[in-house]
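Supplementary Methods. Inverse-folding protocol.

Structures were first reduced to a discrete structure-token string of length 197. This string, shown here, constituted the complete conditioning input.
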């Protein structure tokens, strides 16, 4: 979706696009480019795969007039700095941490179902994923129980299984990041479920 949110408006406005997907997730971008070859003239949608050095070279090249990135705050700072040298337009979508607020009068079961869906889609590797929940004191315990039940009921596994909500994390660095959150659990927190590979 994030790829389309960036590509579609640019193409609709008559621009050409060079897309550099994340180096651990290039397959969907390549597939889209292959499909678009049937409908778009050559050179209108281009996909360049590579790592951060490839991205840096694309941003620093004088041709692009606008640069858009979805990524970390660190990467956004680098892109903004490199783009500033040529006074390029910049769109930064960085380090999303989507909070969810649940008030005391909320339907706890509906809230828990929506939070689980918003938090676990794409294995939580999404800037719009529900990453923290702030709950009213009157429903806190019930919401924790409902979220725990949601987490326990979610089916994981291989992505080709239609009943699987999410598959594995997409790289070892992401696994270390998520494992680190569990390893650094603060004293005031209690683990309700999971914490095993």
């Amino acid at each position: 979706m994030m790829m389309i949110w960036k590509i579609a408006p640019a193409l609709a406005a008559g621009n050409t696009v060079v897309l550099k997907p994340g180096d651990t997730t290039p397959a969907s971008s390549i597939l889209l480019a292959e499909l678009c070859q049937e409908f778009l003239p050559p050179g209108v949608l281009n996909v360049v795969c590579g790592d951060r050095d490839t991205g840096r070279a694309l941003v620093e090249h004088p041709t692009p007039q606008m640069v858009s990135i979805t990524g970390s705050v660190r990467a956004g700072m680098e892109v903004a700095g490199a783009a500033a040298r040529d006074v390029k337009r910049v769109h930064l979508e960085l380090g999303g941490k989507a909070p969810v607020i649940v008030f005391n009068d909320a339907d706890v079961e509906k809230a828990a179902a929506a939070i689980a869906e918003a938090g676990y889609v794409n294995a939580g590797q999404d800037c719009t994923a529900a990453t923290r929940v702030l709950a009213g004191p009157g429903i806190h315990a019930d919401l924790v129980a409902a979220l725990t039940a949601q987490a326990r009921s979610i089916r994981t596994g291989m992505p080709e299984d239609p009943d699987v909500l999410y598959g594995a994390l997409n790289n070892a660095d992401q696994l270390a990041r998520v494992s680190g959150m569990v390893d650094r659990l603060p004293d005031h927190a209690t683990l309700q479920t999971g914490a095993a590979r």
